[in-house]
Each structure stands twice: as structure tokens, then as C-alpha cells.
Design brief:
NUDIX hydrolase, 8 strands, hydrolase, hydrolase activity, NUDIX_hydrolase-like_dom_sf
């Protein structure tokens, strides 16, 4: 069993213990779940290769039923090139997008993210893919990544608090990607779906 497999098992066990702590019917059960969580914390701290901030995020208890986070991304193509953004103080690139905010639908969230990061209004064409982060980029939390084909409307890009640069890249000549957000394999899948008008990819 590899390190990534062990991390996924520990991730799953932590989610189960957090759910148990939230819904346990007795003090005895809560005490047992808390003891299990303490031992999992120690095991993960000793075996994980996660960065300190990622480890701290993973070990932070939840007070609700543990579920994956939802991430939305925009796949925007103009003249055969894909829109990517580079965050402030970062050297890597990613599709525009971010975590879903409470109170907004996934479609509303991606339109909001595009406007905030690029300065452009946008419309959603269709859902291209539903990715599981545990399959493509295992990390401290599990994410469900929804990637929408979008079209830019009026607007103008200006560097902002989040994004330093926006550019369009040939799908066969992509820059260094932020692998935690999007991988080359995912980009190739998305391009194939877009180019060939294939059905959505769903993990």
C-alpha cells in the first residue's frame, strides 16, 4: 500500500470519527470517537508528507456531517486556446474558479468566480466534467470539482487581489499548472470533451 493510499484511508477514518462525534447519542460513544481521533491525528502527523498548513486543515475537527467540498472551474476557449489564470505570488496556472459559496448554485458560483478573477461577465454553456480530487490530486480534503464550459462576454481583465495574470494557451503547450487545482490529465480530458463534443466525464 502506497503513501497516497494510506492518506486516503486516514482521510476517510477522520471523516467517520468527526461524523460520530457530531451524532453520537451518548457520552461513552463520544469519548470513544474522540480517542480514535486522537490516535489518528498522531498517526497522520508521523506518516504524512503534507505541508504543515494542509495537515492543520485536515486535523481540524468538524461539527457536522463530514462531506467533500465543492469546487467549480471554468473551461473557456477562444480561438482554439484555453483561458488560464495565475494567482498572486504564484508561479503556476489554473482554470478560473474556486470553492462554492453557500446560498449560490454551482452555476451562479462559477459566473461569480469568473467575474471576480477575470473582470469579465460570462455565461455557462454546459457541464463538462465532475472530478473526484482523490483520484487526480489527493490532498488534505476531498473535493468534488465541477468544470463548466463557459463563454466570456463584456469585461476587461485587471490584476486584482487574487489574480496576477490572465492568458490563453494552446492545449498542447500549457504552462506549469497548479496540480492541486487542475492536472495535465484533467486538462486533456476536458479538451477532448470540448473538441469532440463528447458527453460529460463523471468520476
Amino acid at each position: 500500500m502506497g503513501t497516497s493510499d494510506t492518506a486516503l484511508i486516514l482521510q476517510r477514518l477522520l471523516a467517520i470519527t468527526d461524523t460520530g462525534l457530531s451524532f453520537a447519542a451518548s457520552d461513552f460513544d463520544r469519548e470513544r470517537y474522540a480517542d480514535i481521533r486522537d490516535n489518528l491525528n498522531q498517526l497522520l502527523s508521523e506518516t504524512s508528507h503534507l505541508e504543515p498548513d494542509e495537515l492543520s486543515d485536515l486535523l481540524r475537527p468538524t461539527d457536522f456531517y463530514a462531506t467533500p467540498l465543492v469546487d467549480v472551474r471554468a473551461f473557456i476557449v477562444q480561438q482554439g486556446k484555453i483561458c488560464l489564470v495565475r494567482g498572486q505570488q504564484e508561479e503556476t496556472w489554473a482554470l478560473p474558479g474556486g470553492f462554492c459559496e453557500v446560498g449560490l448554485s454551482p452555476k451562479e458560483n462559477i459566473v461569480k468566480e469568473i467575474q471576480e478573477e477575470t473582470g469579465f461577465q460570462a455565461s455557462v454553456v454546459r457541464l463538462l466534467a465532475v472530478f473526484d480530487s482523490n483520484k487526480f490530486q489527493p490532498q488534505s480534503k476531498q473535493y468534488v470539482k465541477l468544470v463548466f464550459e463557459c463563454q466570456l462576454k463584456e469585461g476587461d481583465f485587471q490584476p486584482n487581489l487574487e489574480i496576477a495574470e490572465l492568458s490563453f494557451f494552446d492545449p498542447q503547450d500549457l504552462p506549469l499548472l497548479s496540480e492541486k487545482r487542475i492536472t495535465k490529465e484533467q486538462m486533456q480530458l476536458l479538451w477532448d470533451i470540448y473538441q469532440n463534443q463528447q458527453e460529460q466525464y463523471i468520476d
